[in-house]
Amino acid sequence: MNIRYDISFCHPRIFPSRTFPRPKNRFAMNRSDLLKGVSVFDGKARLSVSKDLLEAALFPLDGHLELDWVPQLPGVLAGHGIVSGLLPAPREDGKKWVLAKGKEPVSGEDARIIYEIPLRKDRPGEESPEPLMIDLRDRGVIVNVKKGEVIARKTRPGPGIPGINVFGEEIAPKPGAWIPFPSGPGTEISKDDELLLAIHPGALVKRGGVISVLEEFEIPGPVDISVGNISFVGKRLIVKGFIGTGSEVETAGDLVVKGDVEDEVRIKAGGDMDVTGIIRSENTRVIVSGNLSCSAVEYANIEVHGDLQVRDYILNAVCTVSGSVHVAGGRGLIAGGSVSAGGSIIANVIGTQANVPTEVSAGNDKRAMEQIIYLTKKREGLAKKIEDIRGGLMKLKEIEAQGPLDTRAIIIKERLEEAAVAIAGEIYQHNEAIETLSSRMLDRERAVVRAMDMIHPNVSVSVCEAFIRLQDSLGGTEFSYQRGAIGVKPLSSP
Questions:
Q1: Residues 82, 112 within the same domain
Q2: Cβ contact 415:408 at 8 Å
Q3: CB-side exposure of 135: number of CA atoms within 13 Å?
Q4: How far lies 71's CA from each of 66, 68, 75, 77, 81, in Å?
């Protein structure tokens, strides 16, 4: 008897009260089974995929791969949704035969910090856990940076490369990590977080894993030949020891030396300078843009653009000072050599009992005079350029009166006018500087040379253009400028 089945009763229009689930994707249904392993080839083998879905393998029950299975493998794999990473031939791996290998994702590269300033080691030939260190055993002990200079750059983290599983599905990679700058005092991070910048000039250091730019830097010992020459662009450099023979030190700001300045030293301080000990040796040269204070000066050549304060004595030195000179502490002695000041010179004793030639000159700012001469010559040269520019503009004006200027002539005219404005600005600045220096030169007539206790014979005293050489010893005396001559006035007894 033939039995026919009428499936119309399953139609939802006929039986709306009954609902039937839609059939699931057979590949999705297979996937969970494949993780456990599904039977293939009439139960003679088991097909499975790894938990990460990156490998599909066949497990023959007897451990052997039958040859007649090989042509059927592509169809078997496709039937279970395995479509990617198919191997050209099964590869035996222990008790399994690998049929397909997916591609693992490649994680993105982490952000990296690239230092624009050369990094230093703690000791030569020895790696330091800190990538940037101050090495006092190497020449160039300070790593200087300028304001706004780029200290380090940061590379962006990589997105990585996607992988693909044996089912042909993309596997998202792990992106690289974004790392912070080790930013410390004196540094700032750009708005895009890609640059580490110096807020101000100074010494670049990395301590405790943090990068800083120090406006004040301290060298914990002497500066000698083993340290090498020093250059510092910050506000204040402190040397906790002497500055040894042959060393050179240059600072943009103040310099503090906790010791002596020895033979053949070259120092240039952009600010004030304070020396605990003695500045010595005729081969030593010191230039200070601000004020200088020290215990004593012996034989050295000193140039000070501010005031000179000596706590004990000046011996056979050459001192050129734009401001005033005070040698009133300790012995308060100026003996031998020459001391020239734009302001006054005050000391307890000037000269020696042995009548050693000594020169003191007040109201004599050599540097100011040299600057006035230099600026005047420069101003004259600029004035000549202005005249040449005016001549060129007059010719263009004559041409313009006959008709409109062409493009080339218009450009030339604009450039000449811009140059004239710029040069006029320079001339104005020079005039201001000359006026300031000239007023300072007028004040020099109020300068004095004052020996508080004693001034010995063979001392030459000059105030402005007036000059006198002493033949006899005098007690406390003040020398001043009196209408082209030296005025001599004994100091009142205390």
A1: no
A2: no
A3: 18
A4: 10, 7, 8, 11, 17
Could you tell me whether strands 96-101 and 55-60 are parallel, antiparallel, or unpaired per DSSP bridges? antiparallel
380 plus 335 within the same structural domain: no
Burial label for 342, CB within 10 Å (0-12, 13-18, 19+), is buried
Q: Do 275 and 253 fall within a single domain?
A: yes
Residues 157, 132 share a domain: yes
Boundary-marking domain end, from 347, 363, 379: 363
For residues 366 and 373, give the distance between their C-alpha atoms in angstroms, rounded to a whole number: 11
Domain that holds residue 236: 216-363
Q: How far apart are CA 164 and CA 167, in angstroms?
A: 8
Q: Which of 296, 330, 363 is the last residue of a domain?
A: 363
Can you read off the two tokens belonging to residue 213?
Answer: 């730019």
pLDDT in tens, 422-456: 999 999 998 888 887 776 666 677 899 999 999 99
Cα end-to-end span (Å), the chain: 152
Nearest to 266 by CA among 290, 287, 280: 287
Does some domain include residue 137?
A: yes
Number of structural domains, the chain? 4
Q: Provide the 3-class DSSP secondary structure of residue 136.
A: coil
Q: pLDDT digits over 175-230, tens only?
A: 999 999 999 999 999 999 999 999 999 999 988 889 999 999 999 999 988 888 89
